[in-house]
Automatic annotation (TrEMBL), chain A:
<feature type="domain" description="GCVT N-terminal">
    <location>
        <begin position="82"/>
        <end position="356"/>
    </location>
</feature>
<keyword id="KW-0496">Mitochondrion</keyword>
<dbReference type="InterPro" id="IPR028896">
    <property type="entry name" value="GcvT/YgfZ/DmdA"/>
</dbReference>
<protein>
    <recommendedName>
        <fullName>Aminomethyltransferase</fullName>
        <ecNumber>2.1.2.10</ecNumber>
    </recommendedName>
</protein>
<feature type="binding site">
    <location>
        <position position="288"/>
    </location>
    <ligand>
        <name>substrate</name>
    </ligand>
</feature>
<dbReference type="InterPro" id="IPR006223">
    <property type="entry name" value="GcvT"/>
</dbReference>
<dbReference type="InterPro" id="IPR013977">
    <property type="entry name" value="GcvT_C"/>
</dbReference>
<comment type="subunit">
    <text>The glycine cleavage system is composed of four proteins: P, T, L and H.</text>
</comment>
<keyword id="KW-0808">Transferase</keyword>
UniProtKB/TrEMBL annotation, chain B:
<dbReference type="InterPro" id="IPR002930">
    <property type="entry name" value="GCV_H"/>
</dbReference>
<feature type="modified residue" description="N6-lipoyllysine">
    <location>
        <position position="108"/>
    </location>
</feature>
<dbReference type="InterPro" id="IPR000089">
    <property type="entry name" value="Biotin_lipoyl"/>
</dbReference>
<keyword id="KW-0450">Lipoyl</keyword>
<feature type="domain" description="Lipoyl-binding">
    <location>
        <begin position="67"/>
        <end position="149"/>
    </location>
</feature>
<protein>
    <recommendedName>
        <fullName>Glycine cleavage system H protein</fullName>
    </recommendedName>
</protein>
<keyword id="KW-0809">Transit peptide</keyword>
<dbReference type="GO" id="GO:0005960">
    <property type="term" value="C:glycine cleavage complex"/>
</dbReference>
<dbReference type="GO" id="GO:0019464">
    <property type="term" value="P:glycine decarboxylation via glycine cleavage system"/>
</dbReference>
Amino acid sequence: MSAVQPLRRGLHLVASRSVATSGPLAANASVQLFARQQRTSSRLPAVGRSLAPRPWGAPALSQQGAVRHYASPSTPLRKTQLYDLHVAHGGKMVPFGGFSMPLQYSDLSHVESHMWTREKASVFDVSHMVQHQLSGPGAMDLLMKVTPSSLDKLKENTSTLSCLLEDGTGGIVDDCVITRRSGDTFYFVTNAGRRDEDLAFLEAEISAYKATHGPDSLKWEILEDRGLIALQGPQAASVLQAVAVDTDLSTLYFGNCREIHLTLPGGEQTAEPLLVSRTGYTGEDGFEISIPTAKDASLPQKVTELLLADPAKVRLAGLAARDSLRLEAGMCLYGSDISTSQTPPGASLGWVVGKDRRDPAAKPFNGAASIRPQLASPAKTLSQRRVGFTVEKGPPAREGAFLVDLNDESRTPIGVITSGLPSPSLGGTNIAMGYVKNGMHKKGTEVGVVVRNKVRKAVVTAMPWVESKFYRPKA
Amino acid sequence: MAAVARCLRPFASRALSQQLPLAGVRRVSPAAGFPRGSIRSFSQSPLSQLKKYTESHEWIDLAADGTAKIGVTEYAAQSLGDVVYVELPSADLEVAAGEPVGAVESVKSASDVLSPVSGTVLQGNAALEDKAKLINESPEGDAWIAEIKVNDPAELDALMDEAAYKESISGEDH
């Protein structure tokens, strides 16, 4: 019963979910049926094995875009620089975003790992994500066309959550974090599961820009050789400070970044500085650390092992904990909670649109013509809202479950859950995120959610469920 | 061959139940009122003939009177991780082979439990209502999920025996 062996049945749930989310309303009645068909077909071994090699754990983590990619069994899974380290620590490796990534490790269960992150600190390998650098005289212009962020107001070495937007529709191509490294140099990180779409999108936008402004207007690099890890949890800062002797992390606030050398066990400094950003995807204080490998190919392992030196404080955590942590923190997962079908305001992410970019007279960005009216009068323009739900005791409401009006016996869908699970931090209380029709989105509104054909009561709840503990300057 | 297997099954079933630590609990079912006798001599009977497994990681254990308990395997329980909720079937539910007879939910995912054979549900395991975690502790013992009256014991012949099941999961490594 090796922990490394995932449960094949999960494949079918995954398949049913990815279908359910690709056409929420159409899939309404068929969710259960489809799951059953999938399961039934699994009885033929050949079918079971030829399905996308996604074990049970991957689904809610799925960046749906990724499903399509690695649905093709011919695409071999990639490995991050930390693959061997994961395996050595008993990582249960699963396909995710085209990579073989750890779902969890043998030392802690999913729930234990989740709580460990909330109480101590965890290291996550996020090297599968795509790191980019865009520089040149046109870099700001280009990024302010493809995102709605006020990047011109962004100070050096600070970052912002943003969205890449489709031209015309303003649909979210991907969410990303953009850091201004210097005047016209930007570092940004996009999702692994959207790699192909993002690269095609950026390639087209950048080519068009260069066609007008000249080949030297932009320099776009994909930083393939860099590792990326996240150190998250209340003890993250003290653990990192202990090995970052030349810098004072108490002045590195949420949303800031700094190049830092760490001191390795032998006393020597890391061969190159690491780009340390105070940010994360758990709601805890913590850091994302971009690690170059040009001068030392083993630097990602060395840094990870350095941070793991005291197992009483820091453990490795995988995708399973990452997903439950981010949901408790009310954060979106691309492919589950957001997609090209939503604009930022349509996904209740209107705040990513810079204040000065909302004015119809301001310089446009992709989709501005649809997005600006949505921000100005949401009640008139948005048919549904993304909100949180707390679901009554019993089975969790998960991705693909339909929302109904409790007074409507016909169970006409009024929305759909896009992420949901029993919250480890809240003792198993069922929490969920999803879209509900405009008017039913106010905090405290009671709705029904259909789980395996039974209607369960859910209440619209403010997110996050677990208060974020970002390290900000004291007011 | 199948007929022989069927004849052996009742005896082997009891032999198995005596070998398992939780035999007492399993015996509580009124349906399993098969008299205990000098069964020990049958303890050499191949277990594979009464406890069978599915590719979707359920087990089914057939008793002498045509009732059977259904649950998820050790392997499944381990893969699921912390089980937080078990959906039990209601009595009298008629299930076909491959149809859900319950569901098991961990923090991470939900999985249907498919009935390995057709039959009618006698009861769900009420012990799981308050303690879903039992699935992690004793998946092939106390934490059976459904007890059903099997329509045709011959349906079990198509399922995997323990050796075949173990073989099938040994290849599932990613």
